[in-house]
Specification:
It is a single chain. With about 120 residues, this protein is an all-alpha fold. The protein has 5 helices and no strands. The chain has helices spanning about 10, 25-40, 50-60, 65-100, 105-115. The longest helix has about 35 residues, at about 65-100.
């Protein structure tokens, strides 16, 4: 018996972007609904247009998952799935940005310390 390890990184890697998934009316409406929810919940840092663009990119990058989710569970399950993917992507970016210091903050700190 041989032990085989799954390569998670390559399993999650985007194989091909399929923009044709956006032609399906439910995908478009779910992407809009998810973007509205994100713009409402994170309005200070994420606008509707940016959230919509991210939702569309998520759908195109994982078109086969979108089609399968839509076929198995309908628009409600697709909404949940897309919200989770967008939240993962957006919160990861937000965490990386929160670790950075803006130019203004660094300049202000330098001025206070007399440098």
């Amino acid at each position: 018996m041989t032990l085989q390890l799954a390569d998670l990184e390559s399993a999650e890697a985007v194989k091909a972007v399929d923009w044709s998934v956006l032609a399906e009316p439910q995908v478009e409406s779910v992407a809009q609904a998810v973007a509205r929810a994100f713009a409402r919940d994170y309005g200070l840092t994420l606008e509707y247009d940016d959230a919509y663009q991210e939702a569309v990119i998520v759908a195109a990058e994982r078109a086969s998952d979108v089609r399968r989710t839509l076929a198995e569970g309908g628009a409600g399950l697709l909404h949940r799935w897309m919200s989770q993917r967008l939240r993962d992507r957006w919160l990861t970016d937000a965490k990386h940005r929160s670790g950075h210091i803006s130019y203004e903050a660094a300049r202000h700190a330098a001025e206070r310390s007399g440098l």
